[in-house]
Amino acid sequence: MPELPEVETVVRQLRAVLPGSRFWRVVCRDGRQMLPSARVLRELLPGKVIRDIRRLGKYIIFDLSDDLVMVVHLRMTGMLLLKPSERLKKFIRAEFTFSNAKKMYFSDIRRFGRIWLYRSHEFMDRTGLKKLGIDPLLQKVDLDLLEKVYGQTKGTLKSRLLDQTVIAGIGNIYADEICFAAGLHPASRLEKLTKKDLQKLAGAISACLLEGIRHGGTTIADFVGTRGDAGKHQRYLQVYGRSGEPCYRCYALIKKMRLAGRGTHFCLKCQQLKK
DNA sequence: AGTCAAACCTGGGCGC
DNA sequence: TGCGCCCAGGTTTGAC
Choosing from A126, A232, A256, A262, which is the catalytic residue? Predict the structure, then answer.
């Protein structure tokens, strides 16, 4: 569930608190999620200092001293918490204590999340970061860019929006919201989109992601910030999770279908199907 | 190249 | 109360 705006929210909160901290003790409760292994994390992290925390797509990157990099992907239900709520305590899979007494917890109900620890020259290969496409916050998404990355490809709009090797960071919720904002049906064929469509799409991608960040992310079931605080963006969603409810723009009922293997929400009247 | 389904997991909501 | 079933959706993998 965490997509670019949720991950960005977490990174901003961590950045405000953790850089400069030195790892002191590491407890891993689930080895499956740690790579290359929980033992490597336990043995290599203590003594290392967090130099910087940043984000690429949905990945969180901790640049550490001694040429090490720790990478975290939250996948569906992962969370990095400074203060875990009672409910989330039983899902804590790793616990990081720093020598300044600060703590960071990795909680993950469904255990899809991953934590990697590698040398700086190998983490791009080992984590999948190397395959990521452009990050829409670091690179301006405009008509030029979309023509470049979508120009020669086929397929449905939604499946391309979800493709992390093209544009990194868009997930199911924002993909639906972006399609609505652009006035395009998610099942539209990419090869049928006009220049004007791509123009609208570019604006929609930037606008939807930035608005999600402005609202501190979207909380549907599980996402919370580092202090367990819910985001506010779910109050502003136009189509996701609203099937059967009236469209805010035209009052037609929001529809739901299965597309690219995901629940897909749209307004038939506001979103044009280009086929 | 694209499409699709299954796998990885578990909590929560549903019907009975 | 509780069982069985389905749903959620990020990513990888493998088949067609």
Answer: A262
Q: How much is the pTM?
A: 0.95
Closest residue to C11 by CA to C1' distance? A75
Give pLDDT tens digits for A171-221: 999 999 999 999 999 999 999 999 999 999 999 999 999 999 998 887 766
Q: Is residue A275 part of a domain?
A: no
Which CATH number characterizes residue A180's domain? 1.10.8.50
Number of domains chain A contains: 2
The range of the structural domain enclosing residue A221 comes to 143-266
* A192 contact to strand B (CB, 7 A limit): no
Shared-domain flag, residues A127 and A214: no
Nucleotides of C under 7 A from a protein CB: 7-12
Structure tokens belonging to residue A113: 């999340």
Catalytic residue among A2, A5, A136, A186: A2
Active site residue A84: no
- Verify if strand B has an atom below 7 Å from the CB of A261: yes
Residues A154 and A101 in one domain: no
Task: Indicate whether A117 and A184 sit together in one domain.
Answer: no
Q: Is residue A107 part of a domain?
A: yes
pLDDT in tens, A111-128: 999 999 999 999 999 999
